Amino acid sequence: MGFRLTMGHVLIQNLHKQFIERRAARRRVNSDPDVQRGERFAVLTDINLEFTDGELVCILGPSGCGKTTLVRIVAGFETPTSGRVLTDGREVSGPRADTIFVFQHSGLLPWMTVSENVMLGVRDMKDKQKMAEKIQEYIDIVDLTGFEDIYPHQLSGGMQRRAELARALVVNPEILIMDEPFAGLDFLTRLKMREEVINMHELIRKTIIFITHDIDEALVMADRVVVMSDRPASVKTDIELDFPHPRDFARNPDLENLRRQVYTELGVHYAL
Ligand SMILES: Nc1ncnc2c1ncn2[C@@H]1O[C@H](COP(=O)(O)OP(=O)(O)O)[C@@H](O)[C@H]1O
Ligand SMILES: [Mg+2]
Question: Does residue 103 form part of some domain?
Answer without folding.
Answer: no
